[in-house]
Amino acid sequence: MINRPKGTKDVIPSEVFKWQVVEGIAKLELKNHGFSEIRTPVFEHTELFVRGVGEGSDIVNKEMYTFLDKGERSITLKPEGTASIVRAIVENGLDNEAMPLKLFMLTPCFRYERPQAGRLREHHQFSIEAFGSYSPLMDAEVISVVKSILDRLSFTNYLININSIGCKHCRGRYMEALKAYYSKFIGGMCADCKVRFEKNPLRLLDCKEEGCAAFKANAPKPIDFICDECRAHFEALKAILDQKGVRYKVNNNLVRGIDYYTRTVFEFLTEEKGALNVICGGGRYDGLVSELGGKELPAVGIGLGIEHLLLLLEKNGINIQNNNSLDLFVVNADESAIGGVIELVTILRKHNVSADFDTLGRSMKAQMKYANKLGAKNVIVLGGNEIASGVCKVKDMETGEETEASLKDISKLAYVLSRRA
């Protein structure tokens, strides 16, 4: 037997309905907030992620699935969605459209890392991005749409952390202070942080290693070095969130693991056994569009992983109801009735009733047992008598109640079945 690759997952029918519910709720809320869907290729030229995500990031240094194609071009499976969306905006001239441009994408992402619960080498992510506004109103809008998705899923055990890491103009002083502080601890750093110290000191605050995490307590804070304009932006964001009734906490050590972020960064977290677990995170990236060849176009976005979110919903006791059960199973009572069974099922399907019938020649008892296994909500037994009289009985499989229905009035029958569904 050939097994699936390590770090991947099959989503079988008994689980896929959960994905459909989460995706449906997310798409509904995104539509309600004025976001439109965009789709980009699963793979891109490697340069896109090196320039966009940053050479100093773990994604580029360790986690990308990169290979040479038959034309000796370096190709990378998409490790995240933002850079691909920005590339699509620039290449298709979407930066010339009316602003703001609010987009989302549901996409598979690929990262070569140690597989663990909710974190796979192939995972699926909602990439939610808004372009064209420097205003903190847009930062708040992106935070609000994720909050709305979680609220609609009845996920209440979360908090929002926010911070400002400043813009490219005020970050230089902070980087100098950070390097001066961490230079005293180089000997005690993990191997990754020794590289971060040289390539991207800001990432030192993002390390989860126990030894390195201890250094963060007394490290300089980005908020103490940001310019007046960045500070005003951050204060305005807090005021907007307060006005919206969005509860948040300022976490001065919060940075994000991708190099393109500027000013606002934020995370949604949940508490598990006294420890905080990140649900999703994002922030503002005002320089990425121009870095990838487009206009100076401000932007803010967030990535929301489906597998991770489903795991957290389960851990928090949130059960997603399966609404995909079959509306009707038609039991064939005798061989002469098969034509009538097929006709009834065909017509009901055209009336948007999910209906099925036996194709294996089972006995009536075996057909009823199979209908139960399918989770059919209703059953009709159809034989020569029912076809001749034009009348059948619809059995509600949950209550056992039987209702007489006319086979000649399909619209009414479809209505009865849909009401029970």
Break the fold down into its secondary structure elements and pairings.
Layout: H1 13-32, E1 36-37, E2 43-45, H2 46-52, H3 58-63, E3 66-68, E4 74-77, H4 82-91, E5 101-110, E6 122-131, H5 136-152, E7 159-164, H6 171-182, H7 191-199, H8 210-213, H9 228-244, E8 249-250, E9 262-272, E10 275-284, H10 288-291, E11 299-305, H11 306-315, E12 328-332, H12 338-350, E13 355-357, H13 364-374, E14 378-382, H14 384-389, E15 391-396, E16 402-406, H15 410-420
Parallel strand pairs: 1-5, 7-8, 12-13, 12-14
Antiparallel strand pairs: 2-4, 3-4, 5-6, 6-11, 7-9, 9-10, 10-11, 14-15, 15-16
Helix pairs in contact: 1-5, 5-9
Written account of the structure:
The chain folds into two domains: 13-170 and 226-315, BirA Bifunctional Protein, domain 2, CATH 3.30.930.10; 328-420, Rossmann fold, CATH 3.40.50.800. The chain is 37% helix and 22% strand. It contains 15 helices and 16 strands. It has helices at 13-32, 46-52, 58-63, 82-91, 136-152, 171-182, 191-199, 210-213, 228-244, 288-291, 306-315, 338-350, 364-374, 384-389, 410-420; strands at residues 36-37, 43-45, 66-68, 74-77, 101-110, 122-131, 159-164, 249-250, 262-272, 275-284, 299-305, 328-332, 355-357, 378-382, 391-396, 402-406. A hairpin with a 2-residue loop joins strand 9 and strand 10 (275-284). Helix 1 runs antiparallel to helix 5 (136-152) and helix 5 (136-152) packs parallel to helix 9 (228-244). The longest helix has 20 residues, at 13-32. It starts with 12 loop residues before the first helix and ends with a helix.
